[in-house]
Amino acid sequence: MSVFHLIAPSGYCLQQQAAQRGVARLEAEGHQVEHQTAIARRHQRFAGTDAERLADLNALATLPCAVDIVMPVRGGYGMSRLLDGVDYDALLARQAADPLLICGHSDFTAFQLALLAKGNAITFSGPMLAGNFGAETLDAFTRHHFWLALREPTFTLAWQGSGPACTVSGQVWGGNLAMIASLMGTPWMPAIDGGILVVEDINEHPFRVERMLLQLFYAGVLDKQRALVLGSFSGSSPNDYDAGYDFNEMCAGLRARLPIPVISGLAFGHEPQTVTLPLGAQGRLAHDGEQTTLTLTGHPVLR
Q: Where would I find the LD-carboxypeptidase N-terminal domain in this sequence (predicted)?
């Protein structure tokens, strides 16, 4: 059984009942859940003052060795306000000596990519307390893939993808697309050559998704990757004004423009069903026109 340490670096958790349900579910499985006071903490729209939320992050460097997993209560805006106050040297030293398995997504992507940019530290893009473990029914697929990623030093994801046939290898990175775009031009944007970029988002119209991906393309980021993998894009339905321009049309336009394969269909993101990806691990992506596999290795796992 594992020791979870909760942090709340972003938005206040409106779903207090869900968060408590998540704690109860983890404890019922025999896990220990620490720092539960972060769940109810609030300042304006945030899960505490900037100082309180930043303290959550910087305290990770000195957590006891008994702690296995670090998990945010939820996402929501707030992480961007903290990036310039993080003690990266201390955190990276801790991760090199005794790595915590840090898992989250959404707004938390900014912190994860900052650690990757500053010291190539691997974290996990995956479920969080309230939205996933606190759901009325914990999705079996999500639970399985969470523990798979955190326990197995090598594992393979398989799905029915769409896109051109390809076989590529490289460093897997990415997360929430809006957060990645927001890091452009900052010290916290990883400079990864020959990578496999995996992105997802929620409540972004297809034209906004396209605009953010074109920003990465025009900035030279996509040219340096070996493949782009599209995860879940919840709430991206078109409207009458679009006149046939939908997510699939957007993907087709990207494939015609980008010099790298674009593979879609991965269950990764804000949906109840999501895989867990070690950001910074090595990956081998293979797509035969129908079936896609992504094999990951080189990430830390539970002791």
A: 6-126
10 is catalytic: no
- Domain endpoint, select from 110, 138, 166: 138
Query: In this structure, what CATH number is given to the domain that contains residue 127?
Result: 3.40.50.10740
Is 97 inside a domain boundary?
Answer: yes
The one catalytic residue in 5, 105, 205, 270 is 270
Task: Give the chain's length.
Answer: 303
d(CA 249, CA 164): 15
CATH of the domain at 264: 3.50.30.60
Q: How many domains does the chain have?
A: 2
Quote the mean pLDDT of the chain. 97
The CB density around residue 232, as the number of other CB atoms within 10 Å, is 22
The pLDDT assigned to 96 comes to 97
Residues 39 and 124 in one domain: yes
Given 200, 204, 210, 232, the catalytic residue: 200
Domain-ending residue, one of 112, 138, 164: 138
Domain shared by 188 and 258, yes or no: yes
On whether residue 99 sits in a domain, the answer given is yes
Same domain, 128 and 23: yes
> Nearest-CA neighbor of 176 among 227, 107, 114, 83?
107
Single-letter code of the amino acid located at 200: E
Of the residues 106, 182, 232, 264, only one is catalytic, namely 106
Q: How confident is the model at residue 26 (pLDDT cuts 50, 70, 90)?
A: very high
